[in-house]
Amino acid sequence: MRVLLVCLAGLLVCLQTADSHSLPQKDYDTDSSNHDITNPLNDTSGNNSSSVPDNSSGIFDSNATTFIARTITRRGNKVDKSIYAYKNGKVKKILEDGNAISDWSPKSRTFLGNKDGIYIYDTETEKLEKYGNLSDNVIGITIENHSDDLYILTEDHVVYKITEEGTKKVKINEAEHAEKIALDWDDNLYYIGANDHPYVVTSAGAKKIEGLPVNSTIPLISRPPIKIKHGAWLMSLKQPYIIYPNATSEPYVFSDQEKLEYMKTERAFETILSQLENQLAE
Ligand SMILES: *[C@@H]1O[C@H](CO)[C@@H](O)[C@H](O)[C@H]1NC(C)=O
Ligand SMILES: *[C@@H]1O[C@H](CO)[C@@H](O)[C@H](O)[C@H]1NC(C)=O
Ligand SMILES: *[C@@H]1O[C@H](CO)[C@@H](O)[C@H](O)[C@H]1NC(C)=O
Ligand SMILES: *[C@@H]1O[C@H](CO)[C@@H](O)[C@H](O)[C@H]1NC(C)=O
Ligand SMILES: *[C@@H]1O[C@H](CO)[C@@H](O)[C@H](O)[C@H]1NC(C)=O
Ligand SMILES: *[C@@H]1O[C@H](CO)[C@@H](O)[C@H](O)[C@H]1NC(C)=O
Ligand SMILES: *[C@@H]1O[C@H](CO)[C@@H](O)[C@H](O)[C@H]1NC(C)=O
Ligand SMILES: *[C@@H]1O[C@H](CO)[C@@H](O)[C@H](O)[C@H]1NC(C)=O
Ligand SMILES: CC(=O)N[C@H]1CO[C@H](CO)[C@@H](O)[C@@H]1O
């Protein structure tokens, strides 16, 4: 089964598709993907840096870079896992054994993680470089809004705060056996625990988020769309929720305009995925 995830911090979209039928090759899995928002805080003052959807050309058409973490499995074994950058209709493999893509980045630097640490990909220069000197196997990565610090989730389900330009890590003891991590715009840390339930890390320890339906699907968490100032974003099936640092939650109801945006993004994203498959097949 494929699970696709796209969370666009600059747009009101975060979508998940399972078993998308528009994709070819059965043995190709696209685990998760991400859209790089060039500069969400400056999207009105900047030149066409494309953090705002363009209704005529489609949101992925301009100079924006979309990242796709793609896993190929054959008979249940992973044979390849890499991160690709899609820009202006072209796909480029940028990181082998890549697992993690930050869901937002200041400026044009997107943070990526693989089995030997943290990398930065600059979407303007299209260059990849190692960040800091850590060598953890990174499966989740998220950047603070108010500082240069970040959080990583490692393959053994431990969460670390990374400071001093990627040279120092501190274990977050409150986040026990995390499956996924996310920050909100106020830099509160959330995670999905071993029981598939979301928690928020507070000064008084981890608190279980209340008010969510109990369902078997693993929810997705991410930074919320930029227009949501407080709280993080959670998708359970196709229903979005906002989860708050006080451990409460509420469903988010899409307006008609947002529904259109959502569908448009979903279509644009599927187009990118089939282009990726076509280009890689050549
Ligand atoms: C945006 O504008 C700034 C100065 O106004 C310029 O330095 C930069 O190259 C421009 N970026 C793009 C992508 O056009
Ligand atoms: C931004 O896009 C508009 C409309 O497409 C165009 O008129 C304008 O010249 C562009 N500005 C820059 C700096 O590229
Ligand atoms: C895309 O980037 C190129 C080169 O940096 C620039 O010439 C072009 O105007 C940009 N297009 C848009 C739509 O921003
Ligand atoms: C795009 O949106 C603008 C206003 O946001 C509108 O004036 C324009 O007609 C729209 N263009 C298309 C092709 O829908
Ligand atoms: C936004 O623009 C302002 C001024 O142009 C700049 O000081 C600031 O660093 C920019 N923010 C980001 C996140 O790039
Ligand atoms: C990384 O660099 C820092 C500062 O130079 C040093 O204290 C630390 O031991 C290094 N860590 C590793 C894992 O090499
Ligand atoms: C990020 O932090 C700045 C202050 O450093 C704040 O002004 C801004 O609103 C925050 N971004 C969002 C989307 O909340
Ligand atoms: C929790 O925080 C949200 C958002 O700030 C607020 O609307 C809600 O009333 C708070 N709930 C409690 C029980 O404090
Ligand atoms: C949101 C959603 O789909 N909730 C489902 C969770 O599971 C229960 C029972 O299995 C369903 O009745 C709900 O519809």
UniProtKB/TrEMBL annotation:
Keyword Signal: yes
Region Disordered, residue ranges: 22-56
Alphabetical keyword list: Signal
Signal peptide: 1-20
Comp. bias regions, Basic and acidic residues: 24-34
UniProt biased composition (Polar residues): 35-56
SUPFAM superfamilies (alphabetical): NHL repeat
The protein's name in its UniProt record: Uncharacterized protein LOC114250750
Organism from which the protein derives: Bombyx mandarina
Gene assigned in the entry: LOC114250750
